Amino acid sequence: MLVLLSSAHEVCPVPEHRSRHRFIALSITIAVPLLITLLLLAQSLFAQVPGADREGEMERWLAATAHQEGTIAPGTGITTENWRQYRQFMPMGMQELFEGRSFWKMPKEAEMEVGPTVLYPLPPGYNQATRDYSAAVRVVHLPGGHNDIANYVAGEPFTNPEEPDKGYKLLVDLWFAYLPHLTAGTPANTLHSCVQDKFGSISCLLVSYVYRQTAYNTDPGVARDDPRAKDTWFTEWAMVEAPEQSKYTAQLTLFFKDNQRDEELYVFVPALRRSVRLGIPARCTQVTGTDYLQDDYKNNGFNGGISLFEAKFLGRRRILALTGNYPALAGDFPNNYYMPLGWPMRSWAKWQLRDVDVIDVRRVPSERAGYCYGKRIIYEDSQTHYALWEDLYDADMRLWKLALVAPRVTKAPLLGFVPGPVTSCVWDIQNAHMTSGSTQDKYGHDLLINSDVPAEYQDFDKYATPGGLLQIMK
């Protein structure tokens, strides 16, 4: 077009100012649509940025689910074709996977079969302790914004949380949710954890572990407070069994009865043949290369403590959850999963509608600088107080991770069916990365409880003290 205009100028000269005006008009004619196109393209690209800030999305979810109507009949199959009919019963992050707005999206063949809601009573000792002691427990607010509770002895701290501090009371209930006194995974029944990147590459770890509650115990035949534990109430020991190049890498975490005392994290480094104590910033470090951070890594879905966090109650809802006495199929990743998402296959179990309390958990203002998460939305089971789903945001409040938490009950000596085993899947939507972790192994073995734990793994000094790490590789 410009060439034709140039030729016309030579045949029939046009005054210079008129030529300039025509050029400007032509430039505008070309530039404006191009600019609009570029702006629309930029808007489209920004909308596709993983974890892009969608401010107010949680508020919209709360509004949309505020008046949940009806139910889902047992036997219903939920698919990528009909899921919108049932979205009112889906956590926000589950809707995200069905919407398919990020790299991780629900495979077309995925199906969730719905079954009846089945509640397993918590152990009698835990329920009795709740009746005996919960009425005296109260919330304490300390200088510097830290939080705490007073008068806790055992059992469920707050049986019917109400305002003020309802959200924080629910967080405390989660923190002290029932766990058996001793749970273990040995080389014969390891925890199985696999990570997958956006290219579909999968690598797996086998981890042995010993988790021990050393105070506030309610299991029969176990001392309320273990005299060997001194000032701790919970210990977590874990060691990599495979692959070979990571074998013997181990860590021990100590949680103290004084909730204001920072937890202590010790890591055994095989190359050095010694352990290293890490500071409180290590709570944001990855656990053995997975998408779990130290503050995520616990059966009930939260491992951060109750001193440095506050929680706001957002509402009670019913959501689809994978929980109960389901078969031990989760440890054989990627088999038994809808890939590439890593979503549980229908053969696992029937999904249940569970009552949950939704809480917004954040570091207290004085401790937020440098912390990895801006907020953690927990969908907390109203009976067991285990997390059933989590939506996690980065420090800039961009949606970062989605997490399915699938607690499983198993039969324990003298206790009947109890919670403790768990499978969880974490999807990092900003970095197109995911982790599946399960207390089950590929052969269907799950964790061992109390007296079923082999004698070697009941050794307190070896598996519950920093000195025990020095016995590795000896």
Keyword list:
disordered N terminus; 15-stranded antiparallel β-sheet; two-stranded antiparallel sheet; 2 domains; about 475 residues; outer membrane lipoprotein receptor (LolB), chain A; alpha+beta
Residue share in helices? Answer: 10-25%
How many angstroms does the end-to-end distance come to? Answer: 83 Å
Task: Provide the CATH topology of the largest domain.
Answer: outer membrane lipoprotein receptor (LolB), chain A
Radius of gyration: 27 Å
CATH superfamily of the largest domain: Lipoprotein localisation LolA/LolB/LppX
Largest sheet: 15 strands, antiparallel
Highest CATH level, the class of the largest domain: Mainly Beta
Number of strands: 21
What is the average of the pLDDT values? 90
Classify the secondary structure makeup into a structural class.
alpha+beta
Order of helices and strands: HHHEHEHEEHEEEEEEEEEEEEEEEEEHH
Walkthrough of the structure:
The structure is a single chain. By secondary structure, the protein is of the alpha+beta class. It folds into 2 domains: 2-44, no CATH class; 150-469, Lipoprotein localisation LolA/LolB/LppX (outer membrane lipoprotein receptor (LolB), chain A). 18% of the residues lie in helices and 31% in strands. It contains 8 helices and 21 strands. It has helices at residues 2-11, 16-47, 57-64, 92-99, 124-133, 166-175, 460-464, 466-469, and strands at residues 77-79, 111-113, 138-141, 147-150, 182-185, 191-196, 202-213, 232-242, 250-256, 264-269, 274-278, 309-321, 337-338, 343-344, 352-363, 373-381, 387-394, 399-412, 416-428, 433-438, 448-449. The protein has a 15-stranded antiparallel beta sheet that branches. Strands 1-2 form a two-stranded antiparallel ribbon.
